[in-house]
Amino acid sequence: MEFLIERNATPINSDPIVGSLPDVNDYTGHGLIDADATIGNFRYPITRIYHSNAPTSKSFTHNSGETVSFEKNAGDFEAGVPYTAERREIVFTFEIQFDPTTEIIEFWPRYYNCVGVSDNNLISKEYHAQFDSPILGSNEITVMAVANTWYFPTLSPPQWYPVHPDQVRVAFSLLIQDVTLGVNNLNSEGDFRIYPNPAGAEFSIDLGDLNDDCEKIELYSIEGKQVYSRNISKTDAVDKYTISTRNLNNGVYVCRVFTSEGILESKLVIVN
Questions:
Q1: What does pTM read for this prediction?
Q2: CATH number of the domain at 193-270, please?
């Protein structure tokens, strides 16, 4: 729920009382809450929140002999004083794949373990963890995050800021949807309809008002492979087309209806 609440927050500057705070973003989560929009977007178990686990891989880069200073006092570190440090850059890679019936809707960066990801690093003056733009597929995602920590060997005793590299953790969440529980048709009123959906041995496509304008019907697997195609002429156009699923595997498909005005799409789930 926290994710959906944040995503439906309004810019904080629209509030005359707390207008001096930053606008809402993925890191801060500040803003006024639209409760109706939040509740409307949460449709458990159709939509769910997935929290990241351990990264698929983690790599380190060691840079020595840097001179750094702190923006303000932090523990034993004094603001503005130059310190000799060794920087460790840690790159986290997460590769997550769900089953074909799961669709990823949104990505949300969560936290850095020792301080909130919304806190600025007092050395780099950036967020402690930087998430690259995720590489997103329909049911899979690759996420990379970069974090830095510094080692100060000349101090007595030597210290790390903000934590030892082995203690660095980053996390994120995903808003996902199970399309077998609630198929999200993209059609508006007056467009075509697929039923039953989920489908068993066969399904029907009701073209409705598109009957006289339909030129072709195509069906694609979730991987993008065409599994059905039918050209439609004015002479053989009918209101409804019934298609057998006998040679199709269970899973999620995309049905496309081609008209002179463009292409319409709708998801279909086959469960034999």
A1: 0.55
A2: 2.60.40.3080
